[in-house]
From TrEMBL, chain A:
It holds the Pfam family VPS9. Residues 438-472 form a coiled coil. Residues 139-149 have a biased composition (Polar residues). Residues 71-93 have a biased composition (Low complexity). Residues 94-105 have a biased composition (Basic and acidic residues). It comes from Danio rerio. Residues 68-149, 402-423, 488-509 are annotated as: Disordered. This is Rab5 GDP/GTP exchange factor isoform X5. One of its GO terms (molecular function) is guanyl-nucleotide exchange factor activity. GO terms for biological process: vesicle-mediated transport.
TrEMBL record, chain B:
It comes from Danio rerio. The keyword Signal does not apply. It is a lipid-anchor. It comes from the Eukaryota. It holds the Pfam family Ras. This is Ras-related protein Rab-21. The keyword Transport applies. The gene is rab21. It is found in: Cleavage furrow; Endoplasmic reticulum membrane.
């Protein structure tokens, strides 16, 4: 699609290549057949027009709003038909969102009147109609809008950060802005390498300036440079990530296909020292995969590096748990290769190229992030060149697996299929394990219930038996109350058989 | 890459050698002073850093471990790009590992020329009885390719401190030479002196190497 490839084409008529405005320069399909200069003019005009339209609309709405307010106060009959308001609500909310994204500052007055009260419904309809005509009029000179929230935020952060630096901060800001503008002006004609050179020159110049003019310590300079990188790369991301002039995209697709074709490679072939049966290990593996995939969503080269580093840390954790010793490169690289094969990260080559081209070199050369990044490059290089020998396979087997005629697992030993199957999917193993734990729990609970029941039965039984026994004993030894045995000489004092009581006798002696 | 200011040097050192020659033990002994220890705190031994202070200059050493298996051999250039030094480790009981070192040396010299400081290290001298690579052969070879030879034992903690210290000094010299040849080598007074004094804030790295002059 690039300018260059069209020029190379033989069958294209010369007149089709020229700018439609007839200024004599070559045009480009991406700019609707205009040359870069005319396109910029058009774009500026359209943009200007849109801003004016927006303002006019805002003013008009304000006037209407005031009128409506007055009339609603004078007579309450101006209630709109309900169906109408519902119809326009959906489109309206979208519109409002878009407006907020674009320029929060400018539309504050407009927004005030956009508050979704039913009274303003007629204007909503109007707004949606206006918006439609808007879109028809200017097809899309507003590509830059989509990501402007993030850009705005980063710009604000950057300014906030620079405020802490006082005078140098202002200068840094001025330089960065000027650099972004100059990149914006010339970016279309440059190859990726030239873009990279521009950015690297800028980094170099900026850090030299900081070191020499402002006498910053190297740590401080590093910190400032991180912020500068964040700012300019967020702003330039869209135009320099996977630029049209490079063949990054083709490489991305090739790598993706390659990884897909290698889906059959197992942990054993790569000698990865990781056992996925261990839940903590499989957890780490999943996290590592997530991190490496997440890399694509970041804009700043250093954030992308941070994703790679985080992925590596999870890998180290997995190895540590499995082997119980710190991981060396001999463990790490195969595992990283395995993770890349499993994750198949989107736009891998583009991301690697982007980091290489636009990352601050001091990060990439000696730092820890640089080490992990280098390993990722190695992993990709290995995957690209991977052959039978590097997996300890015979060339015939390798061919068969690559062409999909055979699968290594089924071939190895059909008897071992279930085990290797469960090894391949640790989640299933986990589920199975959980199920068996659950069923054993259920069994034990059953036992407990049975035990409780038998205990209950025993207790009742015991109670009954005790009662029975008591009863029996009671029966056997009935309690009949006999008349009380009287004292010997309580009543029959006069008993004849008893000798007369002794009487004291006095003896003389 | 050496910092241009001449105050802090950052060096990248790659660790090359076949698997099982003890590369990991070597760096772990150097950076953590531990050997086969259950209490090793680091999660990994593939990227380690060490801060040194040599002749009043700060040196940040980044040690990059590389995968030593044969199938990763082709990836070497990606690893040792931009490195200032290389430590080539072999096992004194393993003749093959020494042959492997020779291959690495050839490759490094071809790709990076004389700008990289090479150290050839015969590890596991605690297994002297089973030695299969003769001292004469190894040292002779090292000299013939412009490398320094060291004998170490990670197990007994022998020769490791000296190895890294020597390497750092050599890398500093190389960096200073380069600085001067670039014309902006207005580095401070101590560049010409041969005497080296080590002022070290980390006790295990404190090896005084006979110096007489202090630099600010």
């Amino acid at each position: 699609m690039s300018q260059r490839s069209e020029r190379r084409g033989i069958h294209v008529d010369q007149s089709e290549l020229l700018c439609k405005k007839g200024c004599g320069y070559y045009g480009n399909a991406a700019w609707q057949g205009l040359c870069s200069k005319c396109w910029r003019d058009e774009y500026q005009k359209a943009r200007q027009r849109q801003i004016q339209d927006d303002w006019a609309l805002a003013e008009k709405l304000q006037r209407e709003e005031e009128a409506a307010y007055v009339s609603s106060h004078s007579s309450s009959q101006t209630q709109p038909p309900q169906s109408h308001s519902q119809h326009s609500l959906a489109t309206f909310s979208k519109f409002e969102e878009k407006k907020t994204n674009e320029k929060t500052r400018k539309v504050t007055t407009v927004k005030k009147f956009f508050s979704p009260s039913s009274r303003t419904a007629p204007k909503k309809a109007l707004v949606s109609r206006l918006r439609e005509s808007h879109e028809a009029k200017t097809p899309s000179p507003s590509i830059t809008r989509q990501s402007s929230i993030e850009t705005d935020r980063v710009s604000r952060d950057f300014v906030e950060f620079l405020k802490t630096l006082h005078k140098p901060g202002r200068e840094i800001h001025k330089h960065s802005r000027a650099f972004i503008d100059s990149m914006g002006n010339k970016k279309q004609d440059l190859s990726a390498e030239e873009l990279s050179e521009c950015v690297q020159d800028f980094y170099q110049g900026m850090s030299d300036r900081l070191l020499n003019h402002f006498k910053g310590s190297s740590e401080k300079v590093d910190r400032v440079m991180d912020q500068v990188e964040k700012y300019i790369m967020t702003r330039l991301y869209k135009s320099v990530f996977c630029p049209e002039t490079s063949d990054d995209e083709k490489k991305d697709l090739a790598t993706q296909h390659r990884i897909r074709a290698l889906h059959w490679v197992t942990i054993q072939m790569l000698c990865v020292p990781v056992e996925e049966e261990i839940p903590e290990v499989s957890d780490s593996v999943v996290k590592a995969i997530t991190d490496i995939i997440e890399m694509d969503s970041k804009r700043v080269p250093r954030d992308k590096l941070a994703c790679i580093t985080s992925c590596s840390k999870h890998i180290f954790n997995a190895i540590r748990v499995t082997k119980n010793e710190p991981a060396s490169a001999d463990d790490f690289l195969p595992t990283l290769i395995y993770i890349v094969l499993k994750a198949n990260p989107p736009r891998l080559q583009s991301n690697i190229q982007y980091i290489t081209r636009f990352c601050n070199p001091s990060r990439l050369m000696t730092g820890e992030d640089g080490y992990y990044f280098t390993n990722l490059c190695c992993a990709v290089a290995f995957i690209e060149k991977l052959d039978a020998q590097s997996l300890n396979l015979s060339p015939e087997d390798f061919e068969r697996y690559m062409s999909g005629q055979a699968s290594p697992r089924r071939q190895d030993d059909p008897a071992g299929w279930p085990q290797s199957g469960s090894r391949v999917n640790p989640v299933l193993t986990q589920i199975q394990h959980n199920l068996s734990v659950l069923s054993s729990l259920e069994k034990r609970q059953q036992q407990v219930i049975e035990g409780a029941q038998s205990l209950e039965a025993e207790l009742t039984e015991w109670q009954e038996s005790v009662a029975r026994e008591v009863q029996e004993i009671l029966e056997r030894y009935p309690l009949d109350i006999k008349p009380r045995a009287s004292a010997i000489d309580a009543e029959n004092v006069e008993n004849d058989r008893l000798p007369p009581p002794l009487q004291p006798q006095v003896f003389a002696g | 890459m050496a910092a241009a200011g001449g105050k802090t040097y950052s060096f990248k050192v790659v660790l090359l050698g076949e698997g099982c020659v003890g590369k990991t033990s070597l760096v772990l002994r150097y950076c953590e002073n531990k050997f086969n220890d259950k209490h090793i705190t680091t999660l990994q031994a593939s990227f380690l850093t060490k801060k040194l202070n040599i002749t009043g200059k700060r040196v940040n050493l980044a040690i990059w471990d590389t995968a030593g298996q044969e199938r990763f051999h082709a990836l070497g250039p990606i690893y040792y790009r931009d490195s200032n030094g290389a430590i080539l480790v072999y096992d004194v009981t393993d003749e093959d590992s020494f042959q492997k070192v020779k291959n690495w040396v050839k490759e490094l010299r071809k790709m990076l020329g004389n700008e990289i400081c090479l150290c050839i290290v015969g590890n596991k001298i605690d297994l002297e009885k089973e030695r299969h690579v003769s001292v004469e052969e190894a040292e002779g070879y090292a000299e013939s390719v412009g490398a320094k030879h060291y004998h170490t034992s990670a197990k007994l903690n022998k020769g490791i401190e000296e190895l890294f210290l020597d390497l750092c000094k050599r890398m500093m010299e190389t960096a200073q030479l380069e600085e001067r040849s670039r014309g902006n080598g207005a580095s401070n007074s101590s560049t010409g002196r041969r005497g080296v004094q080590i002022v070290d804030d980390e006790p295990q790295a404190a090896v005084p190497a006979g110096g007489c002059c202090t630099s600010g």
